Amino acid sequence: MWTRVADQVVALVGMIEAHLLTFGIAVVLCTWASALLGAAITYLTRRGMAPRSCMGFLRFCFPSIILRHKSCRLDVLYIGLGKLLHPFLVLPFMASSVFFAEAAYGGLTLAFGARAQNAEPLLLWAVILAVAVLLQDFMTFYVHYLMHRIPALWELHKVHHSAEFLLPITNRRFHPFQEIIDNLGNMAAVGVLLGIASYAFALPVHDNSIIGLDAYFILNMLSFYHLRHSHIPMSYGERIEWHIMSPKQHHLHHSRAAHHWDRNFGLFFSWWDRMFGTLVIADAYEAYDQGLPVQEQPAYDTLAGLYLRPVFNLARMALGGARVASAGSNAAAGEMLTDAAMSGADGSGTS
Question: CB neighbours of 67 closer than 8 A, spacing ≥ 6?
């Protein structure tokens, strides 16, 4: 009898694993596990904390001032509405690295002929994975960099920067148009690389294109993904942050202080910010006032504002109306202040 019960339990566990523990769910669980680990490390090692306790850790992770703030409520509403609109506004325009990999592979096959596919050596797989990780990390940096540098793209990216407190779900506070641009930029670059590598080394293109998903998973895991958009002030110290981007450095990126604008665009490696001159080492104990400049923030404090304000501003730009400057750019901000001074204004304007 006990053998039969054990067999039934094993079968039940197998059913649950097969239906619930999919690759996507496993990725989500791993990213949340890494976030919990990062929060615990920060709580245990941070100076000036009250005596450590389980309740103290919970209060550290879930401070009431953030949970009661309107920015938190707006995040929840925006993500909830986004779930309903995503299949209609975003999903039809999304593509995966698999799509671009197979397209590149197919194009090369048409141009130069088919190649017999070989088994994929482990070392070659590891090298391609490492290159894919580097490329995806750079593309994430560079698309983000352009979001701040190009005025039209900044109008879309303001939606994300309008969060006055960072929560893990703030990572979903993106305008639908930006989601499409981010997806195409990253997936096209990684997919084309994998398609070319598959053809060049005569590897199975479909199996190899899964590396694009692996690269994304690894970056999320290693960057303490959820803590980047949170109040948990996890920093690595100057020596490490010179090479690897900490969550605290991304908190600085969201600061509304002018001297923090256009800094720390990277996801995992800090090298790209160093190359572009945008890297700032975070002060582990400095508090940042986050959000858009105070004179611009109210326009993004409603659901309608988050969805429609960027479209309205882009329409004004396209029709040649009042100039909408790149509020994320120090250069643009300086130009606006200069214009205001010349016209005798008080110097107030967008960030």
Answer: none
